[in-house]
Input
Amino acid sequence: MADPDRPIAWANFLAGVWGRRFPVDVRTIALEYSTRYPDPIKTVRPADIESFEGALCPLPKSGKWAILYNPAIASPGRINFTLAHELGHYLCHRGRSPGGFECGEADMLGLAGNEPLRLIEQEADAFASYLLMPIDDYREQVGRNVMSLDLLNHSADRYGVSRTAAAIKWLDFTPECAALVVATNGFVLWGWRSRNAKRRRIFYDKGMALPPASVAAQPARMLGEAGVLHPPGVWHPRSEVREMAIFADNYEMTISLLLFGDEDWRVGLEES
Output
């Protein structure tokens, strides 16, 4: 049987081989499955190098490979996604780059480098996303439920990923108009949008100041699982927006999941 030729096909194939066991054991898959090739992955280990989150490196003289990750990453979910991302590089891209890959946070999000490099990083992300969070299983978990912090936490725990990765996965398949905004010290670092949000041309530029009335700009504010419903003029000039905010790193970093414009979201929400 020929190997799959696309990242998502690879992820679906491996998910089928290993079955529905979550979280996915990326380390075992990498070490065991790669033995069918003459240049297998010999080791998966931490490397104390601050300049990257993860790397796929050729091992001198042995003709084998190593997957490395930064042990300073505090989130086990981020480490798990990093390992899957580098496995995606091994399966899909090692023939294009004999020197391997070193991936920082922007690379992991497909936001850095020139267009060919961004495409390669986006493919590694797609592989990781579909390996760790198979789309059919994720849809079963979400069902018809309204997205909430509790549901997001459940997804992150089930798949062994960060809440950011779980939110991005949901944004990639939801029909809702929604976006993710990550900020630090009150300014936007990057954002992610659902297809519906892209159609409505909703975006938040890097360096934009957080809206003063947003939950993200008020770290001491308490909120429930459903978030806070903002009137038009806070996150969007003409639409109500439900904001669910996650605070990390002593409140220096915020992650806001934004849902736009559905009147049904009024029920049970705190008014801003």
Strands lie at 41-46, 54-59, 64-69, 101-103, 178-184, 187-193, 228-230, 241-248, 253-260, 270-271.
